Amino acid sequence: MGSIIEMAVFLAASAILTVYSIREDIQKHLASLLATEGQNEAVITDALGRWANENFSTLLTQYTQSGNSPLTAPTIADLQTAGNLKQTYRAGPFWGGSYTIVSGSFSSHRS
């Protein structure tokens, strides 16, 4: 009788440890994905800054001629074409949505 109870306790403890281990692995994987996405967004933001520096006179002319309306922001493809973004990127982050550049600021959002 004692061996059946011991076996049940052992199986329950094993199941709990397995579930805990799986949960830890998922959290590590998610942290890794989010860190990679943050690095990707930092590279895109840096490319946007380089693009703005290289096109400052054009942006200034556009700004003064338009009567202070919003400036035309580049797309990810524009940054790649101009050579500011050396890496290729999808249209958005891994969770869906899209990268958006609006008047010099950068964000990723779900559409």
Structure notes:
It is a single chain. Helices cover about 60% and strands about 10% of the residues. With about 110 residues, it is mainly α. The chain has one domain. A two-stranded antiparallel ribbon has the order 1-2. Strand 1 and strand 2 (about 105-110) form a beta hairpin. The chain is rod-shaped. It starts with a helix and ends with a strand. The model has no long low-confidence stretch (mean pLDDT about 80).
Oligomer: single chain
Spatial separation of the terminal alpha carbons:
60 Å
Question: How many structural domains does the protein architecture include?
Answer: 1
Helix content: 55-70%
Strand order of the largest sheet: 1-2
Number of helices: 3
Radius of gyration, CA atoms, in whole angstroms: 25 Å
Strand content range = 5-15%
Helical/strand content category: mainly alpha
| Overall pLDDT score | 79
* Total beta-strand segments: 2
Sequence of secondary-structure elements: HHHEE
> Uncertain runs with pLDDT below 50, 5 residues or more?
none
Major sheet size, sense and barrel closure = 2 strands, antiparallel
What is the 3D form? rod-shaped
SSE arrangement:
Elements (H helix, E strand, L loop, with lengths): L1 H53 L1 H10 L10 H6 L16 E5 L2 E5 L2
Antiparallel strand pairs: 1-2
Characteristics:
about 110 residues; mainly alpha; two-stranded antiparallel sheet; rod-shaped
Quick structural gist:
By secondary structure, this protein is mainly alpha-helical. It has helices spanning 2-54, 56-65, 76-81; strands at residues 98-102, 105-109. The N and C termini lie far apart (60 Å).
